[in-house]
Each structure stands twice: as structure tokens, then as C-alpha cells.
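Z., the sequence and structure:
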Amino acid sequence: MVFTYDTEMALSTAAALVNTGSQDPDPLADDAGLTRFLAQERFSGSRTHTPPELEAVLRLRAELTELWTAGEEDLVDGINRLLFTASALPQLVRHDGWDWHLHCTPPEAELADRMATEAAMALADVVRAGELARLRTCAAPDCSNAVVDLSRNRSRRYCDTGNCGNRQHVRAYRRRLASSAQVLGE
């Protein structure tokens, strides 16, 4: 394991949040969509289910999207800004079947602040470990989704949201077939 389990989960959730911005229709277009996203990501804590809550999460998505491909200095500035804005105070907690992990805000804190601090703490671990190369965008030419490469050999190239990897492998296979057919036909 490269990172602790809670860091890996927070990175995956941050990438999933970033990737909702490229989906059409936007899965976070309304409160019901946000509720589905949070359930899928097993994100707990209080909710207001109000338009300002959704708007704050959408602002966070835009900020994380910018940070995803930022250089180290800009990423660190963004991490520090997220933690400062949320008044983060790290604490060890255990709940809902999860073993000990860090929470940086109380469960009743604003949803966007809780999401921001989890993402910021996970990104801080990436910076501290010197593993920025694990944050990338999908290698498919028609996709720019966020990718967290948690593989041991740093070989992950494609996102989770579509079938980018499958499409690229099929394209390569078809090119090889066409190339070998062309050689045989000569």
C-alpha cells in the first residue's frame, strides 16, 4: 500500500468529484444527485440539503479540478487554502465500520468543508510522499478525467468513469490487425 486506506479513499472520492464535472448530464445537478454521489462514496456526516450546500460542493469541485494538474507549489497553496478555510483541526475517529482515521472537521461542519478537508489532507499526503506523479489525467485522447494511480508500478493510465482503457486497447488491437493484414496483402 502506498498510502493509508483513508488517504486512498479520500483521493478516490476527490477524483470522482472532479470527474462528475465532465459528465453529461451533470450528476450533481441537484440535491438528489449529490445524495447519490455521497452514498456511492460512503461520505457521512450532517447535510442541509439546501441549494447553498450544493453550490459549495460545486465550487469545491471546480477548485479540486484546478488543483488536480497544478504544479507542486500551486497545489500546496491550494491545500493550505482549503484547510484554512475549513478551520481544519485533525482528530482520529472511528465510526460506521471504519477503523481509526483522520477527520479534520466535526460531523456537523458544512458538507463542502468536510469534503474539502478530506481531499486536502489526502493531497497533502501525496505531496509529503513525493508522489505527485500519481495524480494525472486520463491518457485517452478524448478524455481529460482525473486519475489516481494507486498501483504499485505506477502504470495506471485510464480513468474509472468510462471505458477509456477498453476503447484504447480495442483501437490498438484493430491497428495491429490492419497492419498485419496490410503486410500479408503485399
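The longest helix spans residues 164-185. The CA atoms of residues 73 and 127 lie 10 Å apart.

Let me know what you think.
H.
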